[in-house]
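Students often ask what a holo structure prediction actually looks like on paper. The answer is less mysterious than it sounds. You provide the chain, you provide the ligand, and the output is a string of discrete structure tokens encoding the 3D arrangement of the protein together with coenzyme A.
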Amino acid sequence: MPMLTRATLADELRRLGVPERGLLLVHSSFRALGPVDGGPEAVVGALLDAMGPAGTVMAPTFTTNLIDPYTWPVPPEERERARILADIPYFDPTTSRPHKMGIIAEALWRTPGTLRSAHPVTSWAARGTLAEALLKDQPLDDPEGRDGPVGRAWQRDAWVLLLGVEHDADTTVHLAESLLEMPHLEILPDRYPSRDARGARVWLPVRKTTKCSDGFLGLGPHLDTAGVVRRGPTGACQSQLVRSRDVVRVAANLLRRQPTALLCADPDCVHCPASRRVLAAWRAPTGTPEAPPA
Ligand SMILES: CC(C)(COP(=O)(O)OP(=O)(O)OC[C@H]1O[C@@H](n2cnc3c(N)ncnc32)[C@H](O)[C@@H]1OP(=O)(O)O)[C@@H](O)C(=O)NCCC(=O)NCCS
Ligand SMILES: [Zn+2]
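The corresponding structure tokens follow.
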């Protein structure tokens, strides 16, 4: 198989249906693509070429390594936690590397001219015509809700590209949870370091924020049944393209009927067993959250 290049990947993305002049949320795995001539920067180039100069590309640059580790997937022992708390640096949008978002998201952030939102835990990088409107003043609480970058993208009829990854990396599912006001988002708040008026270190909570997304894999078959997923080859892997509105609509319909459907089954998960308890007594509001007409 010939090595993937910026030009061939851009062609594959167009064939998949990436909309020129549109808005694209990208979740990605560089390794899944196989060898790429030009590395992650060539993938960013291909995304920008496929979208054209009037398009906008956005990717998560979360820094979930810069929070109190009590909500990490494997929390440390108390003594280790105290050591980590003392050492965690403050978030700086210009220097804090994204954590576990992949080298493509990092390359997008590092491309000169890309903007990054200032959220201390779940920031986003974007470039293109809508970048500033999507990223400015990301709310500290409910950062993945209606008024955050993902919610604003949903309101602007964005597409979600899963480049060699699955829905467990699909942040738009968190938007559906937020729009439904699901109460498990309120437990175990992320806590990030900040400085008080005298410069002393303080730990502040982020209310209503993302939890474990491993169980979001279960959304895939529902989206397939709804017939809203486009699939196609990208390098060595298959990728998926789906409208943000369809992710929210299908996820919200599922979660209304079965609130725990997208929690993971791991009994040792830091979030999901507690979420299951909170959701047992919850009744969803009626009606599917509707974005304004495109
Ligand atoms: C976690 C995740 C990023 C791991 O995927 P991955 O492909 O292993 O990670 P990356 O995209 O960083 O690629 C890593 C590879 O790039 C290589 N690489 C890193 N920098 C490189 C560079 N400059 N040039 C060439 N190769 C490079 C690494 O060596 C590694 O390859 P290897 O595994 O063969 O050693 C992915 O599974 C995922 O979940 N992505 C989506 C994240 C997301 O959007 N989450 C949303 C929040 S819910
Ligand atoms: Zn879980």
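The longest helix spans residues 244-257.
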